[in-house]
Amino acid sequence: MENQNVHIPASGYRTAKGFCLTSAFWMMVATFMGLLGATELIAPDITENIGWLVFGRVRPIHINLVLFGFVTPGLMAAAFYYIPRLLRTELYSETLGVGTVVLWNAALVGVVVSLAAGHTQGREYAELIWPLDVGVVVVFAMVFVNFVMTVATRKEPVLYVSVWYALAGVVLTTLTYCLGNIIWRPDTGALAGIPDAIILWFYGHNIFGLLLTPLSAGVAYYVIPRAVKAPLYSHTLSLVGFWALLVVYTHIGTHHLLQVPVPTWLKVISIVDSVAMVIPVMAFLINIWYTAKGRLGEIHADIGAKFVFTGTIMYFFVSIQGSMMALPQVQRVTHFNNWVVGHAHIGVLGFAGMIALGGLYYILPYLTGRPLYSRFLADFQYWMVLIGVSGFTVVLTIVGLIQGNAWLNGETVYRLLPPVHIYYVLRAALGLMIFSSALLGFYNITRSMFFEPGESS
């Protein structure tokens, strides 16, 4: 097997391995919290009188753990592997990297404890209290220093596009996190009135567009050409997509506030740029899909590439949907209901989550020098996640359309609860599937890292 002969440096890719385990472990916790929240929507009294498990605390735990516990570390694991490889050097400091992994996990424990205890700043994607905000910024700064110093000591003069995306994602997230969490106000973590809403949604969208999207694109640009054993279709197109993403995505957050008295010019910019997202999205997808054109057999044969390629397809759907949802006439029906929740699941789990899992499964044989413990379990997890996220999309879209059209016609919230109950049951069942896939993935990844391959590999 080719990857059994790959050179493993004396450091042993300890940082990449640490982020692999971090992602696999917290995926279990994050999806369990999602399953618990979905169950509470069916049976609200199931956690009655258990304050730290009420829906209002379970939901932000689920969101923050998916974002910072599962997806981002999975993408980071791949980046800590491919950046030294692409630059033909070793990581600047494995010690700094391992320290980052430890502090990252300590911050995640703080996330669970603080939010379960009810300590929150009460802002979407910015719920964490000030000490944890500082911790998040510190770990991102540590990652950036490690990446930049690795670039500075490189032996390869050309910076491949994956390196561009990884560095941009880390440094821009460090800056937007400080801004969006109003980190200079430890007492409130917020401004007042409309300015706070504008800044919050500038951050709320960019935590995806300037963190998950660049890191996911970096993994895809590394994995797909290697899996199909072909050069990237167009390096120039990859850089066009890179700069277009930074220019266009940055300004679309205000499309969450079209019903709010924010300046009209800001709404117009957000709508125009939301539609213009077709430029960076299609630049990326055309590049990846043309690289893989005629070579889908190679992608199917590599489980990591299969996850990643499926993630790019999900990216197409979530981006088209996002551009459409920014139109005021569409948003009259889709806003404030489960349509948006379905959209978020396609983006975070379908696009970034799929690519994060693909990155993990692709690099694991290179990290360990031996095949995956079980290709069968990895394939099984792939289908569970694919069915789960596709089911989420269908079920939550239906519920959102029911809710949006009914509210548009003056119906009250409580009268819609009986018609949508069956869809919430289906949602919880799909959540159980996703949680089960996380258990399988953690078992497979752990066995791959610490034990010899199984018979089913």
How are the secondary structure elements laid out?
Elements: H1 14-42, H2 55-87, H3 94-116, H4 130-152, H5 161-180, H6 194-228, H7 235-249, H8 264-276, H9 278-292, H10 296-301, H11 303-325, H12 328-334, H13 338-368, H14 375-408, H15 417-450
Helix pairs in contact: 1-2, 1-3, 1-15, 2-3, 2-6, 2-13, 3-4, 4-5, 5-6, 6-7, 6-9, 6-11, 6-13, 7-9, 8-11, 9-11, 11-13, 11-14, 13-14, 14-15
What does this structure look like?
This protein has helices at 14-42, 55-87, 94-116, 130-152, 161-180, 194-228, 235-249, 264-276, 278-292, 296-301, 303-325, 328-334, 338-368, 375-408, 417-450. Helix 1 (14-42) runs antiparallel to helix 15 and helix 2 packs parallel to helix 13. It starts with 13 loop residues before the first helix and ends in a 7-residue tail after the last helix. The chain contains 15 helices and no strands. Helices cover 75% and strands 0% of the residues. It has a single domain (2-450), classed as Cytochrome c oxidase-like, subunit I domain (Cytochrome C Oxidase, Chain A), CATH 1.20.210. It is mainly alpha-helical.
